[in-house]
Structure formats: C-alpha cells, structure tokens
Amino acid sequence: MIAYLDTSILLRVLFGQPPLLREWGKWERAYTSELCGVEARRAIDRLRLDQALNDTEVAAAQEELTRLERGIGRIGLTRLVLRRAALPMATAVKTLDALHLASAMIFQERCAQPIIFATHDEKQATAARALGFACIGT
What is the C-alpha to C-alpha distance for residues 12 and 21, in angstroms, rounded to an integer? Predict the structure, then answer.
C-alpha cells in the first residue's frame, strides 16, 4: 500500500493522541505534502504559546517531527499543485485541505497506481472519497 498522510495523522502520532492510525507503518511507502511540516510546526508553536508545551517539550516535539519526516516522502508545493488546488473540488474544502488533496491527486497520477488517503478529519475524508480515494483513519 502507498499512503498519502495528511497532517492530522502525523500530529496524533507526534503527540500520542488516540485514536492512532491502526495502519501506521504498514505501508510500502508513505508521502505527504511539504505543507505538512509547516502545519505541524505551527501546531507545536501554538501549543508553546498556549503554554501547553514547555521549552523541553517543544524541543522534543521538533526532534520527533524531524525523525518522522525522514521516513515519509515529500511532495512539493509546485505551481501545478497550487493550480490544481484552486480548481473546483467535488465537495467544499478549505484551502489547506485542497492543497493536500491536489498533492495526493497529482502524486497518484504520476505514480500510476492507487494510493490510500490517510486522515483523521471527517470532512477531509469525505472530500478524498468524493475524488475517488480509498481512505483510512476516520
């Protein structure tokens, strides 16, 4: 199985928040948008600003995120991805979700085989299914 991971998947693993993805690590390969690193680091910083993480915990979270990213291929935010994300979608989606969906669509077209879309976000899963993806995580 080739999996596309949206940010919700990595954040739950990073912070150990249940329910974790049952299929975690059972894929042949996993990919995500380079957007995922930005979103995850913003989440870490928001937790720091909300004083939910102290300096030691921030450092540990950053280190763990970097370790997780090493095992996941990244899809660039190219002009093609940006253009595809700007097109109408099968369901209503927010901008960052559209970028994830566009990244997954383009990646699937390029690798010429089906990929599984992994998300813990129900709306994102609905949008992915409407675009023909099989989904896990919801």
Answer: 8
